[in-house]
Amino acid sequence: MARYTGASCRMCRRENLKLFLKGDRCYSDKCAFERRAFPPGQHGQNRFRKSSDYAIQLREKQKVKQMYGMLEDQFKRYFQRADRAKGVTGENLLIMLERRLDNTLYRIGFASSRNQARQLVRHNHFLINGKKVNIPSFQVTPGDVISLKEKSRKNELIVDNLEGAVRRGVPSWLEIDQPKMQGTVKAMPNREEITMPIQEQLIVELYSK
Fold it and tell me: Do residues 70 and 138 both lie within one domain?
């Protein structure tokens, strides 16, 4: 499966926003965005030119795409599905992205980043309603119970992640049971709980051209 393999911290600096792509490092003083909060490249500190409407829309799309760890074709398919669904297209898009299994694991606290969550899913660490699921894009639904396979319950990385989950907080549409090492999808995610500064209408305008 195609994926971005470049430097993650460059993305945050390019978007002028901390995207939390590297887990615990993003919360430490080693965070590249905190140390160099200007665009990457030789002339990064001098990039203060005025942006066109198209450039602003493009940067918003790039920001959300990078935040959820997708390439262009996959992201565009999500938009097309959101556009066909009932309701507001922009909100539909964000809710579909939030319902991805890799994002859900990150939100619950099983992983410190979405990228790490994708890797854990691919390595068959999780069960959904008792059945193995190794597809990061799997869409969770209310009532789904996400648990660890028995042999994964002693995985030090996952255990450490769960202990640090309190720092980020768990959204109200999810619930975590730390002693049982499992999470439950209580409801569908809602737009109000996506606290990152996203202007989804700009993405709709970009794809509607």
Answer: no
